[in-house]
Amino acid sequence: MLAIAERDVPVTSLRLGIDVGGTAIKYAMVDTADGTLHGDIGEVPTPTPATPDAVATVLAEILAQVRLRGLPLDSSVGVALPAVVRHGVAHSAANISPEWLGCDVVELLSRRLGCPVTVSNDADAAGLAEVAHRAAIDPGGSNNGDPHVILVLTLGTGIGSALVVDGVLVPNFELGHLQIGGMKAEAKASAVARERDGLNWREYALRLQEYLSHVEFLFSPDLVILGGGISVRHEEFLPHLSLRTPVVPALLANKAGVVGAALTVR
Ligand code: BGC
Fold first, then answer.
1. Which domain holds residue 201?
2. What's the 101 CA to ligand 1 centre distance in angstroms?
């Protein structure tokens, strides 16, 4: 469980980041000065159905627990959602309840949590966190040839995507919904699709290859970063991929959404 006072971090730079996923809601305190986690990641199941009201109730419970451990009452909270989010309003609901469509999420969550809330697309949050983390540990990007156009893809319940050009995010880049062979890409090549279809790693890599080749042709990124929980198993499928573009596993793996959600508050 999270503890605020584990090391000497000014409480003012700590923010709660929450990543609402298709199966689990993850949360952690993040030091927004450098994007490091402060304590462990907490995780609770996503309610079924994951309506705005049900998710808001779970987030309020999480916040109440974290406040007991020292988070100031007025501290803003960052939330990442698996939906297109424009000006605080959700405009898609591929892997969550259709009730999110048109929901003013900032208004709902600020009211239910009783504090300022920032809401962003989950892959956008993860992409920003991942790119910021890489820039911090490798400032010139020398390990990957100083990439200008970075595409971060998260492989989970769906496929999330974030395009970051010279450090600037192009928000709501929904590449999981590209059609590949008459099917949505995420229905074929997400981590959940691999499990659902009982694919071994080589079979899964073939599907990823088809998807990534298409994406590479359309967008010519300088670097592709593969994230989501499955990225910790990258040794199983990355060696089977062959692209012109360097493809690397996400360094933050499935923590990126939580870290990114908190960073968007900053
Ligand atoms: C949604 C995206 C989301 C991705 C990963 C897709 O189904 O349309 O908004 O980023 O899943 O959760």
1. 139-255
2. 13
